[in-house]
Write a structure and sequence with these properties.
The protein is mainly α. It has helices at 2-14, 21-61, 71-97, 112-153, 156-169, 185-192.
């Protein structure tokens, strides 16, 4: 409505034949006042939008006490958020650096979750392997203990060797006669043992 009135006044002022010089000046002054009022309303609307923006920021930051709602408290809170985000970014790069780099040789921050999932999957596979190896080691130890018991309290050395032979024969681990040191026990052991690291 204000702009419509302003346009009507300007149209009248432009028609100098219908009004006098003094009336034209009054109309121009009124038009200026209406323009100033429109600018002031726009300013107030912008201030209201700004205030609403501040209110949203304070609300998001959990600042509810009106006495704490100031520009400086907002700046401090924003700086805290920026510092936390910087810390998270540094941690993200540190985590990503634990994995192979991206195509440009930089920490692959875009694939952290995929890398962690792959690492968990590999860890689960290694746990299964460890459990399998622990079971094999346990069963071999129990077989040797049973062989010793057989030797001491059962059928003697022949019965004991049946335990050892069954333990090796099942998975196909009895040495072939043409293997190096196949007929020399200590030399065979020394050549085939694994050194602990």
């Amino acid at each position: 409505m204000t702009y419509e009135l302003l346009n009507n006044l300007r149209a009248i002022a432009a028609d100098g034949d219908r009004i006098g010089d003094q009336d034209s000046r009054v109309i121009d002054a009124a038009a200026d006042l209406i323009e100033q009022q429109a600018a002031r309303i726009a300013e107030l609307e912008a201030t209201d939008k700004q205030r609403a923006g501040f209110d949203r920021c304070f609300e998001a930051l959990g600042i509810t006490d009106d006495r704490e709602r100031s520009w400086s408290s907002l700046v401090i809170a924003i700086n805290d958020v920026v510092e936390r985000v910087s810390g998270l970014e540094a941690a993200r790069i540190a985590y990503a650096s634990e994995f192979p780099p991206d195509a440009e040789g930089l920490p692959d921050v875009g694939n952290i979750h995929a890398n962690i999932r792959a690492m968990k999957k590999e860890n689960e596979r290694l746990e299964r392997c460890t459990q399998t190896l622990a079971s094999i080691m346990h069963n071999n130890t129990v077989a040797m203990q049973a062989a010793w018991i057989e030797w001491q309290y059962g059928e003697g050395p022949e019965g004991a060797m049946a335990w050892i032979e069954n333990t090796l024969d099942g998975p196909g681990l009895i040495p072939e006669s043409d293997e190096p040191f196949a007929t020399e026990a200590q030399a065979y052991f020394d050549a085939n043992k694994t050194e602990l690291k």
